[in-house]
Amino acid sequence: MKASKNALQVVPPVDSEVPVELTRIVPKGSIRIVFWGLRIYIVVMIVLVIIGFSRGIH
Question: Which long-range contacts (CB under 8 A, 24 or more apart) does 46-55 make?
Fold first, then answer.
């Protein structure tokens, strides 16, 4: 039993790939508040880590 050429080709040729344009969204409302909360949380955690490393283990 012979397989056809098309059955063996699993990956499409590179030339057939079309780039997709990326767009940026602008968060609104509660999503914006959550993002700002995450930023504040990250800053607070970084400050706590810096304080922890500066005091060291005593």
Answer: none
Tokens standing for 9?
């080709």
Q: What is the pTM of this model?
A: 0.56
User: Mind spelling out the 3-state secondary structure of 2-15?
Assistant: CCCHHHHCCCCCHH
The Cα–Cα gap between 27 and 40 comes to 17
Which one, of 35, 34, 55, lies nearest residue 47 by Cα? 55
Model confidence pLDDT, tens digit, residues 27-52: 899 999 999 999 999 999 999 999 99
Residue 48 near residue 40, CB atoms below 8 Å: no
